[in-house]
Backbone:
């Protein structure tokens, strides 16, 4: 006699084994490609005779994230209902931190520092999380060994900024903006822990990208007169569409993976993001060549993040 469970089509099925490595690696590599992608936009803008001002950088950012938000609308269920249910102050704060402030700082930093340095510093958000989580979420304070890992990560960041290699631009200023961006990202993750009790993560991300993108476009008003010249250029248009897709598809796929796999398993693939960013920036950004600080400091930073991974497993679930 057959087991009823064997004939129950509603019983949960294990996801295919290939889905985790293929999906997670695709997200990590795509996110890593954003660094040379943004640098490509800046270089192309200069080649067509436009001055790469902060306003122009924010115009590119606003176009990207507005498009990304629009791309996520078909993938977001009951979006209008979520908008009504969500506490509007929390939703506004999340959008301001995750998209607006984070990418004002990020796109500004990319105008000052190299893509390789920015790729490495993306993981500094993990360090901010470890410090902010006990303050704002009342999670346990780091143990002495974890404080040592934080110090190790800080030494790695200082080393990377001190010896970033060729094409580094103004690494100290760029690093400060990068660190500010990752700090805003870490705060946004904490806000999301409260927001996701009211609406799905994917819906919150869609609203954040769309609202933040529009706010970036409004902030870029001094560059509005260059909009036609900028986006009528095929390379700028295609690169912006690609970067918008990286944000929209990457968030959607990663959030889906978190419903299927343990977060500690997924976390291992997050370390591919800075590695991919450094490799792709070196290959595709003319004049960039990582120095000893990127390699040596990168080793220290990634080892520190790996050591802190167990501390972060629970709060980071479903947030990437």
Residues:
């Amino acid at each position: 006699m057959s087991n009823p469970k064997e004939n129950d089509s509603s019983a949960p099925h294990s996801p295919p084994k290939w889905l985790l490595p293929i999906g997670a690696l695709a997200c990590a590599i795509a996110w890593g490609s954003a660094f040379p992608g943004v640098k490509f936009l800046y270089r192309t803008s200069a080649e067509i005779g436009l001055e790469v001002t902060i306003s122009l950088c924010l115009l590119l950012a606003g176009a990207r994230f507005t498009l990304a938000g629009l791309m996520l609308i078909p993938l977001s269920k009951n979006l209008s209902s979520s908008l009504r249910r969500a506490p509007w102050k929390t939703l506004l704060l999340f959008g301001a931190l995750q998209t607006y402030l984070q990418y004002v700082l990020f796109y500004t930093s990319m105008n000052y520092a190299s893509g390789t340095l920015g790729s490495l510093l993306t993981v500094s958000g993990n360090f901010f999380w470890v410090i902010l989580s006990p303050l704002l979420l009342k999670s346990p304070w780091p143990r002495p060994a974890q404080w040592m890992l934080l110090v190790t990560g800080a030494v790695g960041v200082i080393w990377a900024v001190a010896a970033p290699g060729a094409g580094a631009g103004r690494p100290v200023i760029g690093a400060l903006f990068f660190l500010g961006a990752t700090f805003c990202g870490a705060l946004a993750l904490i806000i999301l822990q409260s927001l996701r009790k009211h609406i799905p993560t994917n819906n919150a991300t869609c609203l954040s990208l769309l609202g933040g993108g529009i706010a970036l476009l409004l902030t870029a008003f001094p560059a509005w007169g260059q909009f036609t010249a900028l986006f009528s250029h095929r390379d700028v248009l295609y690169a912006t569409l690609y970067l918008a897709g990286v944000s929209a598809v990457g968030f959607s796929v990663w959030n889906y993976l978190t419903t299927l796999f343990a977060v500690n398993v997924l976390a291992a693939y997050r370390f591919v993001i800075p590695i991919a960013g450094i490799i792709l920036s070196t290959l595709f950004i003319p004049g960039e060549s990582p120095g000893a600080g990127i390699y040596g400091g990168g080793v220290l930073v990634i080892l520190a993040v790996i050591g802190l991974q167990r501390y972060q497993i629970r709060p980071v679930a479903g947030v990437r």
In short: Residues 4-11, 312-320 have pLDDT under 50 and may be disordered. The first helix runs from residue 19 to 32.
